[in-house]
Structure formats: structure tokens, C-alpha cells
């Protein structure tokens, strides 16, 4: 593997300069050199001017966009996206589907039909657009506001609703809070509530994919896509994940959804640098900032990021996708306690990934008011149908409370299940097991 | 935007039950929802309050729930000393459980502020501030999210004084508050109660109140009366559910002192936090059905704990049950039971029983089967008395 990597490095002058692990190169301070050659900072020029870098003097990292908020392409000379209109319509419908489901489920939570929900309003473009650039073999680690990634990768309404109602068809066996989806193929690891924990995991997973591809050239090259918010990027795991991915050259694309709020905390109290993108540069990671309301820009950036991640033997990439969290953090949050209603209304009216793509589609003659109405009506009916079926379905058997802690149920857990069954049988009036598959026999 | 129009759910057949996993069986007489309005554990009048807390007669009180009582304690602390600071995620707008409501506007953003989203940063920041003479109250949004700060708590806060030695520098004055425990639908990551993990670490005090008035007195004692770091765990289901009279002024309840909440002669039940209410309900049913007289002890401080009060009680009753919500394996019950068999062995007339969460994670749909309930405590009482 080392030889192979060296061969690749040797062909790329830039890589040869910056990316060769330093233990392979001899570093010494030559007399009369105009630059420092300490192991920790190679190639830094000496200067007699004492000057602290003040970040506010540096220009902000620009934001890549392809289309403006009227759905018009900004650069007429730009080469086309290379995606069929049919495919773009699929993206639009996937964003719409997430949005329609979000509205129904948010309201359903308010009615007490499920315990919790989180919508993606304003961020559908980031999740759908980035997932569209992945292959089904790529692996995803997500946070909790990436419903569009699941939707774009083929998660069905039946899958969504089974998880939301934690019924016996739920991949998570009824164990997780709503919106903590997980999918075997295309692989999206089950959502974990703690923030940022998935970031170093993604780095390790990507390294595993890289090693496997080196060990078996017949399997397709794969990347890991890792999603998180700008709040999560304050956790130590963000630093750990990006730094270790850089040092091990893991083929992972980090996608930060910068939506302006971590629950109530605005970005001004979250960090003082130039967003999250500026940090990627510090880790030596290829980085871009994109307009998250522009699904074309997100798709193109992700497609290129995927290519970069697999080039030169693999390396991490950071995408910071800018958006505005139109919704409350979750159904447990009332965001008007900390931000003005007018601010939210303003954003909703001004810009939004769904409306922007809809304008483009209408400009192309691919969409109109009738199609919009009919599609929404059909989607809403489909959601409600799947909702009703999932809600009526039984919960998993109670023994699933004890399985999967270890590969096999321990002797201790077996004894506890026996004791639980004794209790339930001794006090049958105290427990209602009718909604669980197999009732008391399911323990 | 028209997509935000409220939909109608007419097309969906009304469900036979709501999602709530706490819905009791229709025929239940033990596993009923706790009626906090009539629980003998809460001070429903100011008279019972002043008897219990040994307060001067001039004391005024107000009926508060637990988040209001904690808010009152924090306000009292911030008023009493400029050394007190309050910070954490989303603290500025009042906190996700409303414990810090209005405190930033009353005391300013120098002492009450939001932090970035980093638990290791929050606790490390608090340790540093405490080491330099402040009394920082750090909020971790959920106990489930304290683990990035485990290094700071276990290796730093707990060992600070010990490694400094004669410099006498320490992390005392730091209180790390965190909501803990089950609410019925928190699943894996909004339910945990990691007191046993912290109680394994000498050097931090671990406290869990059972009620609003207890919360205020114990929190003020944690902030002001000890120079040791304190992990202050707040059973979040009590934030709104438990309402009682709480003294308006400054008062403290000593740490590391258990309380005999209900005296009895035949059996001792030792618990803390929310399961105190389950124990109380089980005791009422058992005393009625079995004619026994049962003592209930609230540990209040999990570590360092009041061994003497527990041993004295078991020496009197000869029987003991330990009840807690978190997992039974290597839990607080194991420590208490081992201490009892060591210190009161010859008086024991039955094995010390533990009623606690099973050794698994709290899967969403299974919570009510995993965590202790009144029926399981009732059954343990029956078995222990009949042994």
C-alpha cells in the first residue's frame, strides 16, 4: 500500500510538496535558508515584520452558487449540469415529499399522535442535492435533519412511518426516538442523538473503505458522506474527526449544514471565525462554501467533492452549505422565544431551496401550478395512508428491549426477562401488552 | 409559504391510544400515573414546609414546580455572590427546561451566558473558573450528553485538589447541573441517569433532589457550602410535574445527609430522585394490603453518602430494598446493599433486594417494562416481608 501511495504522490507535484507524510522526508534547517523547516511548519518564510493575523482583515470565503433566487442560471457560459430534466424533477419531488411529510408529521405530533418530530424546512436542498451525487454504495453518517438524504436514497414512506411510529417494521426495532432513521442499503447508519459523535466515526469508516478498495481493486471506490450542523462543529469530536481524516487521508466528504441556529444559540455565540469552512483550511482539507438554497450548486460541489475524495489515494473534503433554519429546532422547541417571527417570515418569503428550483423548472416549462397542486395532493394522501397503516401496526415484541445489547442475550438479561415475565403474569392488570407483538409471550 | 398550511388529519382513523408509553392499563391499581398533587412527599402547605426544613417562622414561601424552584435557587445564588456564574447551551433564553429564565436580563451577560455547543468545553471552563475563585454553575443540557465532559470531571475536577496538594488549589464551587431520568418517550438519549458512573469517582459529590424545595436547598448548599465539585442531577420529569411550597429566601439542605421521609419499623426502602414517588405509592398499597409499617429514606446525596442513617434504619427494621431508575448492574443499589450486609448482617432477616432498571438501554417502546414501577416495588416489598 505504501508503495502504491508513493507512486501516486510522485505523479502529482502539489501532493508531493504538501501531502507526503513527513516521516518520509528529511527535514533540517539549512544554513542561509529563507524559510523555516521545523517539523511542525515546513516551508514557512522568515519575515522581520511582526504581524499578527487578524481574521477580520482576511476576505470571507466566497459562497458558490449556480442559480439565483429567481431560479435563473448566473453564468450562461457554464457547462451544463449533465443531469437529465427527469432527474432534476425527481430532486424537486423528493424535496417536496420531505416538506409535505414534515408538515403532516409536525401537526401529528402537536395532536399527540407521536412523541417527537424534527422538520427540515429550508434545508431540503442540501440533503437531497448532496445525496444525489452519491452512489448507492457510498456510506452515510448523518445527524438528524437529513430526511432528504434518506428520501433521495430510496427510503420509502413505509420505512419513514414505521420508524416514526416505532412499530414492528421499524429497522430500529422500536427503540429510537422519531426521525432517528437507519437504512441497511444504501447504507445510512442509524441516527444517534448525541451531536458530532458521527464525525470521527465517518473518518474511520472512510479509511476502512479506502483500505478495502486497496485490498480488493474489484470493488467500486466508495466514499463516506458525513452530515452535521454548525452547532455540532463546536464539539470536540468535530476537531478530532476532521484532523484524523486529514492525517489518514480518509475519503470522506464532511457536509456542514450551517443553518444559523443551534436550538436557540445563534452562530454569533457559536463561533467567531469565518463559518465552519475556515476551519477546513486549518486542517489542510479541501474546502468549499456553497449556497444551500441552490440545489444545483450543492449537487455540483458534492459531485466534485466526491471526485476529490477519491483522488490521490483518498482525502477528506469539507463542504459548508449555508441555509436558514426556517423551522423550530424540533417539536419540543418554540423558536419565537428567541428569534423574531418576522425574521423567519422574511427568510421563508425571500429564499428557499424548493421555491428556487420550482422557479427554474417553471422557467424551463417543466412545471406549473396544476402539477404542483396535483403532486402535493397525491403526496399528502400517500403520507396519510402510510401514517394510518404504521400507526395501527403492532409494536415489536417486548424481548427486543433486551436483544442487541450484546451479540447474544447475556445470562443476566435472560434472568431479567424471566423476572419481568413473572411480574407481568403475577400482576396482569398492571400491564397492557395488547399493542406489542405476541403480548406476554413476546417477553 | 403554502407548504406550511396546517393539514387536516381527517383521513386518518383516530388511534386507539395516544403515543404516550405511560398510558396505564385500565384495570391497574398499582401502576397508575403518580398523582403529584396528593403525594405525601410534597409540601402542599407552607406549614408542613417549615416543620420539615427547620426554617424560622418568618419564612415566606411560594408554590413552585421544580424548574421554578431551581430558577429561584439560581437567582438567590446570583444575588448572594458576584462569584456565581451561570452558563451552558441555550442558557441565555432561559434554557430548554426554563431553569434560567430571565436570569440573563437580571444579572447581565457577563455572568449568565450561552456557550458554544461543547460539553467538554463547558465543564473545563467551569473548572478553570472555580480554580480561580469563582463559583460557576455549568448546565449540561441533558445528562445523556455529559460524556464528552467525562475526562474533565473524572480526571480533572475530581483530582484537582489531590494533585495540587499543598498549593490548596481546587475546583470547589463548581456545580455541574444536568437534567436526568425518564419521561416516557426519551428513548436512548434523553433518559439516562448516570449517577453511578460519577459516584465511582472519589472527589466529586453527586446529588439528586426529589422535589422543588429539596432542589433549591440542595443546590444552594452545593454552590456555597462546600469547596468540592458537585454533579447536580435534576430528574427532568419533576420540572413541571412536582409542585410544592418552596421558601422564598436563602436556605440550604446539607449534602451527604439522607432523610427519613417516612418512618417505619418493618422494612427500609432506600431510594432517591423520581422513584421516591413510586416507592411512596407502593408503600401505601403494601401497608394497606399487608399491614406492615415501612420506612422510606431519600439518600439525596448519592456520594459521599449517608451510610449511618441507612445502617441505623436497617438495624431497626431488619429488611431493606434499594430502588433506583438507572441500570441495576454495578449501580447505586449494589453499593448500598453491600454496605448493609457488611454493617447490619446480623440484623438482616431477608436478603437486600434491588429494584432498578434492567441491564439494557431504554428503547422507546419498552421504557415502562425496563424501568422500576409501583408493581415491581410492591412485589419486592411482599417478597421481602414474607421471606
Automatic annotation (TrEMBL), chain A:
UniProt EC number: 1.2.4.4
The organism's place on the tree of life at top rank: Eukaryota
GO terms classed as biological process: branched-chain amino acid catabolic process
Subcellular location field: Mitochondrion matrix
Required cofactor names: thiamine diphosphate
Gene3D superfamilies to which the protein is assigned, alphabetical: 3.40.50.970
CDD domains: TPP_E1_PDC_ADC_BCADC
Keyword entries, A-Z: Metal-binding, Mitochondrion, Oxidoreductase, Potassium, Thiamine pyrophosphate, Transit peptide
InterPro entries, alphabetized: Alpha-ketoacid_DH_E1_comp, DH_E1, THDP-binding
Leading EC class: oxidoreductase
A single GO molecular function term of this UniProt record: metal ion binding
Recorded catalytic activity of this chain's protein: N(6)-[(R)-lipoyl]-L-lysyl-[protein] + 3-methyl-2-oxobutanoate + H(+) = N(6)-[(R)-S(8)-2-methylpropanoyldihydrolipoyl]-L-lysyl-[protein] + CO2
Pfam (any one): E1_dh
Dehydrogenase E1 component domain boundaries: 93-398
Function: The branched-chain alpha-keto dehydrogenase complex catalyzes the overall conversion of alpha-keto acids to acyl-CoA and CO(2). It contains multiple copies of three enzymatic components: branched-chain alpha-keto acid decarboxylase (E1), lipoamide acyltransferase (E2) and lipoamide dehydrogenase (E3).
Sequence similarity: Belongs to the BCKDHA family.
Protein name: 2-oxoisovalerate dehydrogenase subunit alpha
Automatic annotation (TrEMBL), chain B:
Catalytic activity: N(6)-[(R)-lipoyl]-L-lysyl-[protein] + 3-methyl-2-oxobutanoate + H(+) = N(6)-[(R)-S(8)-2-methylpropanoyldihydrolipoyl]-L-lysyl-[protein] + CO2
SMART domains: Transket_pyr (SM00861)
Keywords, in A-Z order: Oxidoreductase
Top-rank lineage group of the source organism: Eukaryota
E.C. code: 1.2.4.4
Domain Transketolase-like pyrimidine-binding: 64-241
MF term (GO), any: branched-chain 2-oxo acid dehydrogenase activity
Gene Ontology biological process: branched-chain amino acid catabolic process; generation of precursor metabolites and energy; response to nutrient
Cofactor dependence: thiamine diphosphate
InterPro entries from the UniProt entry: THDP-binding, Transketo_C/PFOR_II, Transketolase-like_Pyr-bd, Transketolase_C
Protein name: 3-methyl-2-oxobutanoate dehydrogenase (2-methylpropanoyl-transferring)
